[in-house]
Amino acid sequence: MSTNKLDNSLKSELDVLASEGRAKIPERVITACIPAKGEKGPRYKLEGSDNEFIRLNSNSYLSLSFHREVVKAADEATHAFGVGPGAVRFIDGTFTPHARLEERIAAFVQKPAAKIFNSAYTSNCGLALSISNKKTHWIGDQLNHNSIIRAMRITNIPSANKGIFRHNDMDDLKRCLDEVSPEIERVVVVFDGIFSMRGDYAPISEIVEICKAYDHKFKDGVITVVDDSHGIGAYGDTGRGTPEYAGAWPDIVVGTFGKAFGVNGGFIAGSPTVIESVRQKADTYIYTNPLSAADCAAATAAIDICDSDEGLERLAHLKTVTARFRKGLDDLGLESIPGPHPVVPLMVRDTAKTHDLVRNLYENGVLVVGLTFPVVPKGDETIRFQINACHTKADIDHVLGLISKFTA
Prior knowledge:
By secondary structure, the protein is of the alpha/beta class. Helix content is about 40%, strand content about 15%. It has 15 helices and 14 strands.
């Protein structure tokens, strides 16, 4: 037996992806990380290129992955507990760093309890498996992340028990709530805090107030859930994310340690009963080994830094360089989506021009993400820039100079 016949069929499917423009480019390999020096932030070397690259495609908003305290915490935990847990959580795979991280992140996002996962993706899926039953109705934003969409699908509830409201349209959210069957016992309204391709944010205070008005209609109420993976650590006055910025906290918070905190893993935070339900029912938690002790210790150290004077200084610098980049685009007469978040989209609105600009930036040592048709609708072609705390004013001005040169 062989996979030859399967390979042929899969090759045909991959060819279709390529012909439709939906195939991913080959993965580039980072071979070296060059520390910041003088006016230059860190640079990166890629396999097959002599360039030194500025990364404007990184989610590491606070630039903590090389922080000495984060690295030290990971190193000490590895020496104390080894490089892997050796078991799933309920079969003695829980170590002190796991418990500490859960306590720390729960306190950080102002919830009484939390459970950690290998990623925010598996967190969303695990939450859906844990809080859904046959009389649950899910409502989500039109532009929710794929992990939320997948989570809604794996609940196996009928399509009639799902609703989608137009992006950030509160009247359409009300329509979805009005259409819920009276036989439904619980409603879950789920949305991204920061929409990762656009850098705009959910109007959480409005969502929470609207859901409160419908809460009495259902036996188990209306539960609000935010996935704030791109907000936690990088947004709000103290880095507590979109709920802090918007002035309201949903019932359940999902997030990641793999972006602003610069480490790895995801989490769900909520009431102790919700979290115990997750522990008992979430397949993506129960049947897989957890994060390493090193990941947990590093993430805890990163949260501590975020919650310190140094963290506030990093956050303030991030806001400064983000504002500088956004103003630079405005001064060049280029279109973006307004907002203070470090995800800054450049609306190119043309596939060929997007590809050309991404290529020119790459050839001049700048890594960015281009989104073109059919991944996005025609006319919505975009380049996503992600500003990090490690970027200097000189870095920002250099990139703006390149953009000016290639868009003139």
